[in-house]
Amino acid sequence: MKQAVVAQFTVPGMSAAQYDRVMEDLQRAGAGAPSARRYHVAAPNERGWSVIDVWDSAQDLEGFAQILVPILIQNGVTPPTPTVLPVHNIAS
C-alpha cells in the first residue's frame, strides 16, 4: 500500500519571479498539476521561498523530481533537498 508523504522545501534566494517561471515551465512540460500531488502550497520566507507538497507516495515525488530538478537549474535555482515525512492525517 502507498504511504502518502509531505515534502517540505526551503529554497534560499529564490524569488517570486523564479518560482513563477518554474511553475510555467512545469506546465509546459506537462507536469504543472501531477495527479499524484494532492496539495501544493508556496510562500515567500525571509530567506527565499518555502514549498510544501503532499504526494501519494515517496516514489511519486521522486518521479516528479526527475522533471523538476532540470527546470530549477535552468531557472538559476539550486535544487533543495526536501524534508520528507510520512503523512499521519489529512483534514480539510
Estimate the strand proportion.
25-35%
Helix content: 25-40%
**Which series of helices and strands comes N to C?**
EHEEHE
In whole angstroms, how far apart are the ends?
23 Å
Within the largest sheet, what's the order of strands? 2-3-1-4
CATH architecture designation: 2-Layer Sandwich
- Rg from Cα: 13 Å
Structural class: alpha+beta
Tell me about this structure.
- With 92 residues, the chain is of the alpha+beta class.
- The protein has one domain (5-86): Alpha-Beta Plaits, CATH 3.30.70.
- It contains two helices and four strands, in the order βαββαβ.
- It has a four-stranded antiparallel β-sheet.
- Strand 2 (37-45) and strand 3 form a beta hairpin.
- It starts with a strand and ends in a 6-residue tail after the last strand.
- 10% of the residues are buried.
- The mean pLDDT is 97.
